[in-house]
Design a protein that fits this description.
It holds the Pfam family Pyr_redox_2. This protein is of the alpha/beta class. The chain has helices at about 10-25, 65-70, 120, 130-145, 160-175, 205-215, 255-260, 310-330, 375-395, and strands spanning about 5-10, 30-35, 40, 60, 75, 80-85, 90, 95-100, 100-105, 110, 150, 185-190, 215-220, 225-230, 230-235, 240, 245-250, 250-255, 285, 345-350, 355-360, 370-375. The protein has two domains: about 5-110 and about 255-340, 3-Layer(bba) Sandwich (FAD/NAD(P)-binding domain), CATH 3.50.50; about 120-250, FAD/NAD(P)-binding domain (3-Layer(bba) Sandwich). It is built from nine helices and 22 strands.
Amino acid sequence: MRAKVLVLGGNFGGLTAAIAVKQELHGDVDVTVLSDRDRFLFNPSLIWLPFGKRAPTDITFPVAPTFDAAGVEFIQDAADLIDPRAKTVRTVSGHVHPYDYLIIATGTRENLDAVEGLRENSNWITSLDGAIHTGEAWRRFRDAPGDIVIGATQGASCFGAAYEFLFNTSYQLRKAGLKRRAKITYVTAEPFLGHFGIGGLPHGERLLGMFLRKENIAYRTDTAMSAIEDGAVVTADGTKIKYAFTMIVPPFTGQDFLRRTDGLTNAGGYVEVRDTYQSKRYENIYAVGLAAAVQAPWTTPTPVGVPKTGLPTEQMAHVAAKNVAAQIRGEEPASHKSFGDIPAVCVMDAGNNGVLILADKMLPPRRHGVLVPGPQNHAFKLAFEKYYLWKMKGGHVSLP
């Protein structure tokens, strides 16, 4: 009987892991993907959706044909309970799915209750529904412009998206002839500009400061938010920053169903993993991407999270796939790559400009790290989007 691998989640981590396991074993394995969504979402493009530069159909595609072409079974159903002893996963529909090996790639949830009033009074772009909601607010703002607050709360990790939305907002204001009618303020938990949740890179603070001055954007770093009122962001020191439009990146939290498995997750709901991406508790359970716990090698006065989307998620998925394949062959997991050692590659768009971020490691200490500014990065981001959608839709997960 062939080994059965069950993958929870069908986006970057789940799609990559499922097809990579199948390829590692030359098809001689049964792989099933369970996901609450039937479409892949290219999250990096959510920054453009509120401005009408992308529609949901531009940055999503149905995953069933991709999995079918790779010989992977796909079932649209959300996981509800993992039983590691029985080696089963129960879904919200009540079906029970057995597994020999389990790969968790369920991502996270937005913690919209982390700051009082965030859910009710603000907007966010860290999910498709959030970006659509933000687009509706942006169109109302265009009819009645005023001051803008963009930022990331304490505990947030998607600082890159916050910066991209910030600079794209400034660009869109200028195009609409509204730049002089809207003061923009950036509020972030980062200890300094350009920290990005990865400890910063050489000259990053100076470069981001230059971008903000050029765009006439005020900013506050190392700032926690105590509340988002209707019309004002309230910081921990009691300062009220008024707005007519706001977009705040929230922190993430782990999936609730994972917390119900004894010893699987930490207090935040993230799966504790080794550098093989095996669970520290269960040898045959793996976690990749946002679902995996990552410990930053620092503490900051105001808490910041670590970004795990995109390339890091894919790298983790490939390590997990190699190790699952090894175990199925009766070997010990031999592929190791700690999160901090994964290379950092990111293209930050700024409307008609941008910054290319490159480093030999996601987290310090590093030997190399560089930020390359310039308008070519906007074109690079567009090409990056088209390539990744083609790659993932075609199931070409072995490509870089």
